[in-house]
Specification:
By secondary structure, this protein is an all-alpha fold. It has one domain: Orthogonal Bundle (MetI-like fold), CATH 1.10.3720.10. Helices cover 78% and strands 0% of the residues. Helix 1 runs antiparallel to helix 6. The protein starts with 14 loop residues before the first helix and ends with a helix.
């Protein structure tokens, strides 16, 4: 359509402008969800790995129970309970996504807690909160950063999938998943309605994944060695 970079949709709305608005939604969901999931999962994993015993058993069994459900199915179930909207999508994905941080934080903490500097801090009377913040967290942060970067792409795709199914951001608010869903009826007569949002989603997810791989290769001492 003349005057529009990416044409218009079935209602005459600028597709390019809606794609930019959809990018804001997707990136907001991706980054906010990663931060919130990390704030929940990392402390839980550190507690389980450092103290062990019954606390470790209870927390890890909770993780195992949640892992038994497919990610998208769990997200859709929680979203159906909470209702529709951007805030509820973020809450849904946080509930479904904190477990990966907990597992990695626990595994790394199990290794770090046996280090001499942690044992020395404990013997000098440092409390557990201080040991967590000053000694354990700085030494497990690298794999958590890598996971966070990779999960941004995962959450962006999850948000698009939920919106595509009609459980996410509701019209007229633009979201890549809902734009693809709306364009299905016009796939042959107006191919750009489904192709352009789909390509944008794929490009952003690929770019974030490449960034995550680069961070892993750069920050992981085992790979650098």
């Amino acid at each position: 359509t003349d005057g529009y970079i990416a044409g218009t949709d079935q209602l005459g709305r600028d597709v390019w402008g809606r794609m930019l608005l959809g990018a804001r939604i997707s990136l907001t969901v991706g980054f906010v969800t990663v931060i919130c999931a990390a704030l929940i999962g990392v402390p839980i994993g550190m507690l389980a790995g450092y103290f062990g015993g019954w606390l470790d058993v209870i927390l890890m069994r909770l993780v195992d129970v949640q892992l038994s459900f497919p990610f998208i199915l769990l997200a859709l179930t929680i979203n159906a309970i909470l209702g529709l909207g951007l805030r509820n999508i973020i809450i849904t994905l946080v509930i479904a996504g904190w477990i990966e941080y907990a597992r990695v934080a626990r595994g790394e903490t199990l290794v770090v807690r046996e280090k001499e500097f942690v044992q020395a801090a404990h013997l000098t009377g440092c409390g557990s909160p201080r040991i967590f913040v000053r000694h354990i967290l700085p030494n497990i942060i690298t794999p958590l950063i890598v996971i966070g970067t990779l999960q941004v792409a995962r959450f962006i795709i999850a948000e698009a999938s939920i919106s595509f199914l009609g459980f996410g951001v509701q019209p007229p608010t633009a979201a890549w998943g809902s734009m693809v869903s709306e364009g299905l009826d016009y796939i042959f007569s107006a191919w750009w309605l489904i192709t352009l949002p789909g390509l944008a989603l794929a490009f952003v997810a690929l770019a974030v994944n490449i960034t995550g791989d680069w961070l892993r290769d750069t920050l992981d001492p085992r790979i650098n060695a």
